[in-house]
What we know:
The protein has 17 helices and 8 strands. The chain has helices spanning 28-39, 53-60, 68-72, 84-95, 111-114, 135-143, 162-172, 175-178, 185-200, 202-217, 222-231, 233-251, 254-267, 270-284, 287-297, 301-311, 314-324, and strands spanning 5-6, 20-24, 43-47, 75-80, 104-107, 125-131, 150-156, 180-182.
Amino acid sequence: MAAKIYYEKDAPIDALKGKKVAVIGYGSQGHAHSLNLRDSGIEVAVAELQGTDNFKLAQEHGFTPGDIKQAMDGATLIIVTVPDEMQAKVYKEQIAPNLAAGQTLGFCHGFNIHFKYIVPPKDVNVVMIAPKGPGHLVRSEFEKGGGVANLIAVQQDATGDAKQIALAWANGIGGTRAGVIETTYKEETETDLFGEQCVLCGGLTALIKAGFETLVEAGYQPEIAYFECMHEVKLIVDLMYQGGMSYMRHSISNTAEYGDLTRGSRIITEQTKSEMKKILSEVTSGEFAKEWVNEYQSGLKTFKELYDKDYNCQLETIGRRLRKMMKWIDSKEV
């Protein structure tokens, strides 16, 4: 069955016109939603911790950030954009005590609602608008007159117009210009976590590292290995982004295409797919969510050890040096 997709004509912004929207957090998604909604004629109140860089950035962008209670007071829609691992504590201590019947809680990812780390009262709406891209892209595409595709889900409809409010939110940030696909909290959360772990982040970074290490261990120059296994990934991904695997294969050499078609399945094997299924089961059962919450609450020791190990690996140190030589790529280092 084809997915239900909404566009501007399906999503009048009237549901939020003349009403207040509170945005909790002014980070990656928070700043984009706040600015786009304001530019769409919606009153936006920003909540952010005083003295933080994000607080100062909100001020630079013309907002007067305050605390969560102030931002929520009288708001029709409350958009929660603080990181997943912090949401439950922020909700329990600052959002829940200030929630009023009939308000709409909005999330950009379903993690805490789906796994029940946050359980809102029955007299409020619970919706989700999840842009399929980072906040800076949500903002930059909006400024160009375009938008980033969104996912929409309604978990709880207390007022009868929860979907209309969510669609107005999507319209206000530019999502309806690209298309808003209907889903559920369960589907969005589980597919998002699986995609991050197995393909987009975990799978891709592990594949790049393994390729780089294989070439270096065989005696090839690390600089050459970096270009082959890291730098050129963007070229291939851009081709697939534009026209799928077929367009990518159409655009590369016959030699590369033959190597792709005959060798790829030797790298990503049935054993790899079996492990993917295991990871998916860890996601759907809530095992990963519990592991991540426990990791955060215990001080992120494993997280930091693994991060530092990769940050200081040869692939990364070589990359930082080479990117400084490539002025055209607008190198970003952390």
